[in-house]
Design goal:
By secondary structure, this protein is of the alpha+beta class. It has helices at 2-22, 158-166; strands spanning 24-33, 40-43, 50-55, 62-70, 73-81, 98-102, 105-115, 117-121, 129-132, 135-138, 148-157. A seven-stranded antiparallel β-sheet has the order 6-7-5-4-3-9-10, with no helix packed on it. A hairpin with a 2-residue loop joins strand 6 (98-102) and strand 7.
């Protein structure tokens, strides 16, 4: 009888640990390939804010779009660019925006809720990158050019986070 109670206790503990490891408790920014949903990268650090940068197709300068996370939603609040011209944001197109010039950089500050997710296609020449803190990661190092990506705040399990670390898919 004692062996049965020990076996039951072991099964209970094993089930509790398995459940704890498999429950989606870890909040992350998930970047997922839309063509192959298995291909993903995650970042917990991006929850403190991140920047998507790319080379503009017309003026060939780098553009930086700044995002923050509020209540599980993504908000863009600033765009920086090195030169002003065709294809760049216009104040009249962005209600409530303020335009600034500092340190040879133009910027527009505004706030737009982009929702729970947004899509981005990895450019062939744009060299899309995500900047998290002081680190910059080029998306083409993780995904093929022209891959459509979904950026989403989501919860994943500790097991999924661990496997992502093993596969070096954590930013």
């Amino acid at each position: 009888m004692r062996a049965r109670s020990n076996a039951a206790l072991f099964i209970f503990i094993a089930a509790a640990v398995l459940l704890a490891v498999c429950l989606p408790t870890q909040k992350v920014l998930a970047i997922t390939s839309m063509s192959n949903g298995v291909r993903k990268i995650f970042s917990k650090s991006a929850l403190n804010g991140f920047c998507i940068s790319y080379t503009h197709s017309v003026n060939k300068g780098r553009v930086r779009d700044f995002f923050r996370v509020e209540g599980g939603r993504l908000k863009i609040y600033k765009t920086e660019f090195l030169s002003y011209g065709a294809g760049m944001p216009e104040l009249q197109e962005t209600p409530g925006a303020t335009f600034k010039i500092a340190n040879d950089t133009f910027s527009m500050e505004y706030e737009r809720d982009v929702g729970k997710n947004f899509l981005l296609a990895v450019g062939v020449l744009a060299r899309h990158a995500i900047e998290i803190g002081e680190k910059e990661f080029f998306l083409e190092d993780f995904f093929a050019p022209q891959t459509r990506l979904e950026f989403r705040i989501k919860r994943i399990s500790s097991a999924e986070l661990l496997f992502a670390k093993i596969k070096k898919r954590i930013l």
